[in-house]
Amino acid sequence: MAGETKTYLPPSCVSDVAHVKTMEQYADMYKQSVEDPGKFWGKIAENFYFKKHHEGEFFDYNFDISKGDVYIRCMEGATTNICYNCLDRNINNGHGDKIAFYWEGNDPMDSTSITYKKLLAEVCKFSNVLKSLGVKKGDRVAIYMPIMELVVAMLACARIGAVHSIVFGGFSAESLSGRILDAKCDILVTADGVYRGTKLINLKEIADEALELCTQGGHTVSSCVVVSHVTASIESCDGRHTMVWNKDVDRSWKDLMQSASSECDPEWMGSEDPLFILYTSGSTGIPKGVLHHVTGYMLYAATTHKYSFDYHPDDVYFCTADIGWITGHTYITYGPLLNCATSVMVAFEGVPLFPDPSRYWAIVDKYQVSKFYTAPTAIRALMKFGEEPIKKYSRSSLRVLGTVGEPINPEAWMFYHTVIGNSKCSIVDTFWQTETGGHVLTPLPGCTPTKPGSATFPFFGIVPAILSDEGVELEGPAEGYLVFKQPWPGIMRTVYGDHQRFERTYFTKFPGYYVPGDGCKRDEDGYIWITGRIDDMINVSGHLLSTAEVESSLIEHNLVAEAAVVGKPHSVKGECLYCFVTILEGSEFTQDLVKELKEKVRHHIGAFGTPDFIQNAPGLPKTRSGKIMRRVLRNVAKGNRDLGDVSTMADASVVEVLFKNRVEE
Predict the structure, then answer these.
(1) Where are the transmembrane segments (predicted)?
(2) How far is it, in rounded angstroms, from Cα 80 to Cα 247?
(3) Which of 262, 281, 407, 659 could bridge 546 with an S-S bond, Cβ 3.0-4.6 Å?
């Protein structure tokens, strides 16, 4: 039973200096945050600069679609600028010379740092560059690169009121173009390329292909600003990388920045003005443009970063994510900068095996990192190499170890705690989504007794509930649908350009509740455990992939008649893609076909979406109404013959064939 799991108390070195030292203090703060949110968040808002303060209620909202349109408004009427609060405010408070970021490139010899004052100057320059290219408040700007200039570009957008749409650098040209087309971005900011380990990713080539697809789709991007990252100059070739240059569209970042002024007044934004769009996979296969707005997101990013990691001014904080994901938005850029933090930022995302598996710990010792945030996938991958690469370095500066992206299995939790943390760190297993803006379930490092694998308790302002299939709230130990009963400042406001989809996705299944799409269970001690997705989504290495999106890629092949995709447990990724493919009558299922299909998915989605397994499925298990029985397919993928109730299956004979054709690891 989950409730019988051993409980781990916060170490005294963390709790003695923590912002929240006891569960009684947490309970008092939590009570105020949910019963009087205006007072709780209003006090926090006093730490930030507002050009104009709001009047009236802190929140105005409707979660019940049966009573009208769903909406959330926070501090309506106030005006501020999140870039100003990230940079100018901290400089005005005397922290201009403090390091904002230590930057580590793919090569350990490639590193630099930037102060708050220098970062502001660069942001103002690029703000003026964007203005010179015709960008104004409300315009959308796409950004496609994983390097230091990305932070400059996103903050510049926020400074002038443009809406940034950052696309993960591992996405394909087709995925990039789809996101540009949906948001009608006028500008693309990218780099020539970037190295991941020894492999060069030609970002400019992918961007060029994406822009051509946009043109074919009826939308022309006016300018593509290019950072020369792996080439010495635009026209050069250093033997490793050549860049094609389109003089009608392409603009050199370096040239534009050289002539730009380092002063730019901020655009004062309304609280409910949009800040950024970030696309996340949808169960229909079409990515959703999650839209976050200024003030609520600002307050929530800052507050969750401060309390979830127990951040203090002398800490050095290291989040290993890519800024192309929400973790990088909230916990590399906005949250840390709003708290005047010093952070480590890396140009590689995922498992750091280059040049060797000790890369993280070399960085931790180099900068004396005290707060560290990574994915369970990375921890599981590092476990394969044993303790030696970790124990080469002292890691004595570490105090808080966080995890993100998926529930962490107890074995990885224990390795994180005992080996990486030397049993002297608090483990913070955070649950949240792109849609929530920040952590919604998380331990607090200085006060929460933790259980390996549990996200524990709600963050301030979060009111979770567990519902049955009938929508009845379950009390005590229970398992069912995780829902949230009232808004918090950081919750998304809509799906860009499609508010009906926003309502349909999150509010129609159980009117009156926000439904994140995850199941959970609550043990007898009140701890919450995430049990996985309840829709057709698969969590691969912390990245949500839509089964419909993968299936549509497979079906595009001219030999494929039908396809079904399920998740299969994976020792490193958590889950991997297991694909069942029915080919046309008279065609042959070959290894060449498997390679073609994997490449097709890779092209449509990106390398991280490549299936691990593709098996021949002459027939798929379906109900008499024609619905694919994915539960059965998941059991086939795992080799589990205990299929449960199959009484509704139209043709049970297909199952034995599937087991016979099952792809072994």
Answers:
(1) none
(2) 38
(3) 281
Residue 105 region by backbone torsions, left for phi larger than 0, else alpha for psi between -120 and 50, else beta: beta
Whether cis (ω within 30° of 0) applies to the bond prior to 355 is yes
Question: Quick check: 5 and 452 in contact, CB under 8 A?
Answer: yes
- Helix spans in 20-93 (H): 23-35, 37-45, 82-86, 88-90
For residue 409, tell me if it sits in a domain.
Answer: yes
Instruction: State pLDDT tens for residues 4-54.
Output: 479 999 999 999 999 999 999 999 999 999 999 999 999 999 999 999 999
Residue 155: CB atoms within 10 A of its CB come to: 24
Q: Are residues 480 and 403 in the same domain?
A: yes
Cβ neighbours around 49 below 10 Å, total: 13
Pairing of strands 371-374, 400-403: parallel
In angstroms, rounded to a whole number, what is the distance separating the alpha carbons of residues 375 and 256? Answer: 37
Same domain, 548 and 629: yes
Q: Are residues 65 and 147 in the same domain?
A: no
DSSP string, 513-545: SB--SEEEEE-TT--EEEEEESSSEEEETTEEE
Which of 322, 277, 372, 336 lies closest to 543, judged by CA?
322
Q: Which residues have CB under 8 Å from 65's CB, separation 6+? A: 503, 507, 508, 511
Q: How far apart are CA 412 and CA 429, in angstroms?
A: 11
Measured distance CA(126)–CA(262) in Å, rounded: 8
Residue 350 has pLDDT above 80, yes or no: no
Tell me the three-class secondary structure of 122-166, residue by residue. Answer: HHHHHHHHHHHCCCCCCCEEEEECCCCHHHHHHHHHHHHCCEEEE
Structure-block tokens of residue 445: 């490092």
Q: Are 83 and 122 in contact (CB under 8 A)?
A: no
CB 158 within 8 A of CB 334: no
Q: Which helix (H) or strand (E) element contains residue 467?
A: strand 464-467
Q: Is-contact 227 243, C-beta < 8 A?
A: no
β 528-533/518-522 pair status: antiparallel
Distances (CA, A) of 610 to 102, 541, 575, 597: 32, 12, 12, 9
Tell me if residue 253 falls in helix, strand or coil.
helix
In which region does residue 115 sit, left (phi positive, over 0), alpha (psi from -120 to 50) or beta (all else)?
beta
Q: How many CA atoms lie within 13 A of 405 on its CB side?
A: 28
Q: Residues 482, 567: one domain? A: no
> Is 549 a domain residue?
yes
Could you tell me if 211 and 237 lie in one domain? yes
Contact at 8 Å (CB) between 631 and 564?
A: no
Report pLDDT digits (tens) over 182-203.
999 999 999 998 887 778 889 9
Name the residue range of residue 328's domain: 2-81+293-532
Give 236's pLDDT tier (boundaries 50, 70, 90).
Answer: very low
Is 356 in a helix, a strand, or coil? coil
